[in-house]
Automatic annotation (TrEMBL):
Its cofactor is a divalent metal cation. This is TIGR00255 family protein. The lineage of its organism: Bacteria, Pseudomonadati, Bacteroidota, Sphingobacteriia, Sphingobacteriales. It comes from Pedobacter rhizosphaerae. It comes from the Bacteria. Residues 1-151 form the Endoribonuclease YicC-like N-terminal domain. Belongs to the YicC/YloC family. GO terms for molecular function: hydrolase activity; RNA endonuclease activity.
Length: 287
């Protein structure tokens, strides 16, 4: 969601600049800053940004630097000011009151100061609109470039998880044999081999192995990883969707860790968790 776009151009006696910045956010937070003369165009700008940007904390700034020409702003009606001022002096003398600040008082009277409403011509707006769309295009291109880097990194993290997953699959058959030998040795040392009920031993062993079986977790984890990569290749904005998938990946990894009962397998699980945490961090910046 982070991005930056800038466009500038000259028109008549002014220089127009449009700058767009964005940071991560769950929703679109759009902050606009522009000259008052363009305030009537705010809705148009907001609608375009809402459609093209979708999500992020966005700051859009429009500046106009004029080089000479007509100076616009407040004007003073000198005739009316003089009229009010002379009346104040006359009243002040008749009352023998303090004569300080009479001019300041006269300036506050109605219609003494007139504020000229700023406006822009349609040609000026059309020119600014071109600058705005160019800045928006630059902004989107920046995010596309950043997105390509993020996509490669996310794909790498999923590939690393699948690599750890493959190591777990290779280790699992040996894990079952090791557990069986461990239990058999424990019983042999505790009660002696001749005192072991082999049928009962096999039943208890099957029950225990069933409890730590990770066949379902492996199937779901592989499916979630494949789905993540498919979603990553989609042209649509799927940041939230990939966030949900990563939660499901984490659930299967955690279950594997709980059932591992093997130090080496736990190391592979920790490796998967580390890669998943990096994925979650990166997804904060994906639309």
């Amino acid at each position: 969601m982070t991005g930056y776009g800038l466009a500038t151009a000259d028109y008549a006696n002014a220089k127009y600049s449009v700058e767009i910045k964005s940071l991560n956010s769950k929703f679109l937070e759009l902050n606009l800053k522009f000259p008052k003369a363009f305030s009537e165009k705010e809705l148009i700008i907001r609608n375009i940004c809402s459609k093209d940007i979708e999500r992020g904390k966005v700051s859009l700034s429009i500046t106009v630097e004029r080089n000479g020409g007509e100076v616009t702003g407040a004007t003073i009606n000198t005739a009316l000011l003089s009229h009010y001022y002379n009346q104040l002096i006359a009243v002040n003398e008749s009352l023998n009151a303090n004569s300080s600040n009479l001019l300041q008082t006269a300036l506050t009277f109605p219609d003494v100061i007139n504020y000229k409403e700023e406006s822009v011509s349609e040609d000026e707006w059309n020119h600014l609109y071109k600058v705005f769309t160019q800045a928006l295009s630059n902004f989107n291109q920046f995010r596309e470039d950043e997105g390509a880097v993020l996509k490669a990194d996310l794909a790498l993290r999923i590939t690393n998880i699948l690599s750890y997953f493959k190591s777990v699959e290779e280790l699992e058959p040996r894990r079952i044999t090791a557990i069986r030998d461990k239990f058999a040795q424990f019983l042999d040392d505790a009660v002696g081999k001749v005192n072991i009920d082999q049928n009962r031993f096999e039943q208890e062993l099957i029950y225990y192995i069933d409890k730590i079986d990770i066949t379902e977790e492996k199937t779901r984890l592989k499916s979630h990883c494949d789905y993540f990569l498919q979603t990553l290749d989609s042209k649509e904005a799927n940041g939230k969707k990939m966030g949900f998938i990563s939660q499901e990946i984490g659930r299967e990894i955690n279950t594997m860790g709980a059932k591992a009962n093997d130090a080496q397998m736990q190391q592979f699980v920790v490796g998967m968790k580390e890669e998943l945490e990096k994925i979650k961090e990166q997804l904060l910046n994906v639309l």
